[in-house]
Amino acid sequence: MARPSSSSSAVAPELQLRIEEKLALIPGLPNDVAAKILFCVPYSHVDRLKVTCKSWRHFFSSKTLIRLRNHHRNLSSLLCIFPQDPSIASPYIFDPENLAWRPLPPMPCSPHVYGLCNFTSLAVGTNLYVLGGSLFDTRSFPLERPCSSSAAFRFDFLTFKWHRLAPMLYPRGSFACAAIPSSDQIIVAGGGSRHNLFCAAGSRMSAVERYDIERDEWVALDGLPSFRAGCVGFFVGEGEEREFWVMGGYGESRTLSGVFPVDEYYRDAVAMELKSNGAGKWREVGDMWAEGERARLGKIVVMEDEESGCRPSIFMLDGNEILRYDMASNHWQKESSVPRKASRNSSFGFVVLGGELYVMSQRWRPHTKTGTLFVQIYHPRKNTWRSLLARPPFHCPLDFKTAILCTVRL
């Protein structure tokens, strides 16, 4: 979404017209001035203030609010958490700065499918996208066999509603996905049909496609050099030098003693040059681990460099250690250790938010059915840690092995 210059101190005329003149937002003040005051309220607190009066309910429910926040660049970095299938459990927006939560409506539900997991969620402007995933379909046989989904949904924060989009060309879950910078397009690559209930089962694929947001259309691109699922995607460079990287994940599987299925994880990455007139061929990046070195298989996140806009920072959380990927040497190096280690049989949530790394865990009290979200925050440039505690609104333990996390700026 194009953003006007922040040097403008006045509200754009087209935004002024959307404020209902008959309803005084703050008595004694012009509505344009009152709107400037109210849009500074953190987005996570909007629901609490809607009930104040009719004019506030109208303003906080209108498209004007987010447009004003974008116009003046008064945006907050928020975390969107999908605790489980979003068609049956509401996702939540979490504001770590104000320790506030705001629920989103459940995604449109289909009577034939259930147990959606391993989908990908990402934000583009004021829209939140939910793509693909693995699920069970009552129309398939056998019923206990999971399958992948091609469904695509968009949540519009301006209207606060979900919309069903054109489905992907290929159904997939656990795939690489990234929005093309400065372009209303999204690329997805690889994936498969694995479900959380089946640790090492399901199909793998190499298909790649691009989504045009404006046209609501998917277009097939050259596939990955080999099958790859459970991977992460991101962009490196800009203009004609821009590349789409796919890193991590697993391909074929083998069995131990002819019984137990084990994934064969990739030790390298692949990159595709993305030109203005289309996509180029894939090239393979060599082994990222030295001979005899144990390959790490932790969660990978990407931190964009807002200053240069060229080369992002890639981090991995493996156990209690954070590693950083060095593109020059094609090797992972230890960055830091999590101050408070994970307890046995527990997992961390790992996400980038506002230029920092958030390492999250939950303390659950079964007797009261309440929990506490403990967040350890690492600043890569300052090499410092801080922490915060929040009380989430969930009525069951939050499993970070299966929960989907993404960030949005509103």
From TrEMBL:
Which Pfam families does the annotation name? F-box (PF00646), Kelch_1 (PF01344)
Q: Where's the F-box domain? A: 29-69
Q: Please name the InterPro entries in this protein's record.
A: F-box-like_dom_sf (IPR036047), F-box_dom (IPR001810), Kelch-typ_b-propeller (IPR015915), Kelch_1 (IPR006652)
**SMART domains according to UniProt:** FBOX, Kelch
Q: Which Gene3D superfamilies match?
A: Kelch-type beta propeller (2.120.10.80)
Its domain of life reads: Eukaryota
Q: Which PANTHER family match?
A: F-BOX/KELCH-REPEAT PROTEIN OR23, F-BOX_KELCH-REPEAT PROTEIN OR23
User: What name does UniProt use for this protein?
Assistant: F-box domain-containing protein
State the organism named in the record.
Tripterygium wilfordii (Thunder God vine)
